[in-house]
Design goal:
The structure is a homodimer. By secondary structure, chain A is of the alpha/beta class. Chain A has a domain of about 170 residues: Carbamate kinase (3-Layer(aba) Sandwich). Chain A has twelve helices and 20 strands. Chains A and B meet through helix 1, helix 2, helix 3 and strand 3 of A and helix 1, helix 2, helix 3 and strand 3 of B. Chains A, B: InterPro entries: AceGlu_kinase-like_sf, ACT-like_dom_sf, ACT_Aspartokinase, ACT_dom, AKii-LysC-BS, Asp/Glu/Uridylate_kinase, Asp_kin_monofn, Asp_kinase.
Chain lengths: ~425, ~425
């Protein structure tokens, strides 16, 4: 008997028919002798519809009330799912975030989990029931208020529950078969990866792979939770995201996969005085504007001018506020100008085997060079090489690298739902 | 400074525009220097839509999960209302039933309030905020589960909060101007009643007046809460439902008003053995079938036959299960047959002044007799006379009585929203 946490997203419970289908899958897992905890998101577009209502009554909705509003979405889907499972003759009980013991800090809209005390979930399992838990939500003990975990919150709920309950695996159901060596829409010969370390998965997620949220993977790595990313449309095994123990050697391919990201822009601050502390002041301004910057490159200043150029990438949605914040402090910092480039793409090659294989960078850059692809920025970690190119050649670059590292599978990837995420 | 509880039903918060309008009214009451607690129902048809979803995934939804599902409706309306009030520059905080301390027993779907501990509501008021509380819902302390109060639950929530907080008045907003001497759709000259005792209101509600739920009035009477029934579409004073103290003499009209009810049917059990205990066994069967019976009439048994006929009225929706239950026990009890009549109507004349005015019954029956209206059953209390007639002459009977007791107002009643409730 295993304890399995299963997470289903909004598209898996979009209507009554989908809920019934998911219920059958859950009942099957339960009947096979497993203890099952299910984490569920709000139905389909519910969250967007609720947000529209909030905008209609308030120009700037309070975070506390917005969390109260949005958490009703999971309350609906989890109650319906519990009913549907019971209708199949399997006992099921639904629990809100607070009933499931998801204690968070008080930051409405993007709360962090500080404690998980799933006593009622454990009691439901002990009573032979399937426990359904609302994803995305928790509560703050000090204020007694309902909170939400923000983007990717339901994945994080699932992993956090799996950790607290000592689950054997946390299954994240999605509309594709698992994690692929590259986006199958871009590289039709991309292979499904059977097994990836959470470290590699973090790099892939950070580099634009959308199947799992970084925060959930981080939580899984910190707490040793095994994630199984699999399709809710098939019975195929998906991708296991594992946490090898210290010193444990696992035979694994040098390269895991390639991720690409077209959702970032580049900002270059030109003519920054080459004085100690200037970069720190610059990035404090950027951080205060609420931006998550990714790659940073500083051109070496020449002794002639005493100034340098600093480029960084950030999500498109955060560009405007950063540009405004920088412009407001130009005289203060003393730089010359700001350049904005929204036509960039990022490509990342990830693989734990890079650590011990010296030829990876050379092969990577040679392949791009042979294909005539110009590289504008470079950033590396122990297990990742990232580059920035023009946006319109990103897909070609992904194919070139995929081929250069012999990642092509024997058959074409099967992509469900047409989203290719 | 007064403490005012205001309750708004689903039609008052049916969409964003309605919510904004209600928010303005609440903000106005707050700005006038009052402490304001608002109880709100789910938006418009939300509850029905959620029930449809439940039926789509389950033939017989669990009460616990149904309560979890339905309570999301108030969560949505209360959060939106709080946002809308804040948007007008008035601080507002929303609270679920459990956050507001509405402790109930564990009977899902029709829980009874066992304790109200509105500490957080009181704290919100102390902080100068408007407190918005979800109507219709509470929680059970033993199970930790969410419960709902059933039909009319939001009125009960409002009255219970008013009692626990020691509010000056509990305003129930509706789509008519208050309680009328008769249904203005039937009697266009019906007058709005300025003041009614909770005792009279109970009789009117029990006799079919739909503006207030019996349970809320009972709670108000027990706890000395003054209810003000008024229109959300006008600023007119509505009807005060008061609780005169013991021995307090209030000058009041002999007759308060007339209620009629077409939603009940009559069942007659023919040839019941006139043996002690038979009626008790009969009504135990009826009660076990879940019926709320109202009027009961037993024909005197004649010494010749030793059998009697027993008639009673009950809501149409409960008739079938009672008929089935009686039929199943016919041989056991030893009665001859069961007759079912779904073409009856009930009319009730209510007035506390009846106690000390002896001519009321005579005038009542004379008026009906003069109009050629046949009476099939009679039931009376200290302050009420009820009769059953054919359904198709109920409206005529109401007009005849209304006129006989000089209840006609000087101008026609204004009915908003066309429902005439």
């Amino acid at each position: 008997m295993a304890l399995i946490v299963q997470k289903f997203g909004g598209s898996s419970v979009a209507d009554a028919a989908s809920i019934t289908r998911v219920a059958e899958r859950i009942a099957e897992t339960h009947r096979a002798g497993n203890e099952v905890v299910v984490v569920v998101s709000a139905m389909g577009d519910t969250t967007d519809e609720l947000l529209d209502l909030a905008q209609a009554v308030s120009e700037n909705p309070s975070g506390r009330e917005l969390d109260m509003l949005l958490t009703s979405g999971e309350r609906i889907s989890m109650a319906l799912l519990a009913m549907a499972i019971r209708n199949l003759g399997v006992e099921a009980r639904s629990y809100t975030g607070s009933q499931a013991g998801m204690v968070t800090d008080e930051k409405h809209g993007s709360a962090r989990i500080v404690e998980v005390s799933p006593n009622r979930v454990r009691a439901a399992l002990d009573a032979g029931a399937v426990a359904i838990v609302a994803g995305f939500q928790g509560f703050n003990r000090g204020t007694g208020d309902i909170t939400t975990l923000g983007r990717g919150g339901s994945d994080t709920t699932a992993v956090a529950l799996a950790a607290a309950l000592g689950a054997d695996v946390c299954e994240i159901y999605t509309d594709v078969d698992g994690i692929f060596t590259a986006d199958p829409r871009v590289v039709p010969s991309a292979r499904k990866i059977d097994r990836v370390t959470s470290e590699e998965m973090l790099e892939l997620a950070a580099a634009g792979a959308k199947v799992l949220y970084i925060r959930a993977v981080e939580y899984a790595r910190r707490h040793g939770v095994t994630i199984h990313v699999r399709s809710s449309f098939s019975r195929n095994e998906g991708t296991l995201v594992v946490n090898p123990k210290e010193g444990e050697t696992v035979e694994e391919p040098i390269i895991t996969g390639i991720a690409a990201d077209l959702s970032e822009d580049k900002i270059t601050v030109v003519g920054v005085p080459d004085v100690p502390g200037t970069a720190a002041r610059l990035f404090t301004i950027v951080a205060n504007a609420g931006a998550n910057i990714d790659m940073i490159v500083q051109n070496t200043s020449t002794s002639d001018t005493g100034v340098a150029d600093i480029s960084f990438t950030l999500p498109t949605s955060q560009a405007k506020s950063v540009l405004d914040a920088l412009e407001a402090r130009r005289a203060d910092i003393g730089f010359e100008s700001v350049q904005y480039d929204d036509q960039i793409g990022k490509i990342a090659l990830v693989g734990a085997g890079m650590r011990t294989n010296t030829g990876v960078s050379a092969k990577f850059f040679t392949a791009l060079s042979d294909a005539g692809i110009n590289i504008e920025m470079i950033s590396t970690s122990e297990i990742r090489i990232s580059v920035v190119t023009r946006a319109d050649i990103v897909n070609e670059a992904v194919r070139v690298i995929h081929h250069a590292f012999d990642l092509d599978g024997e058959s074409e990837a099967v992509v469900y739902g047409g989203t290719g995420r």
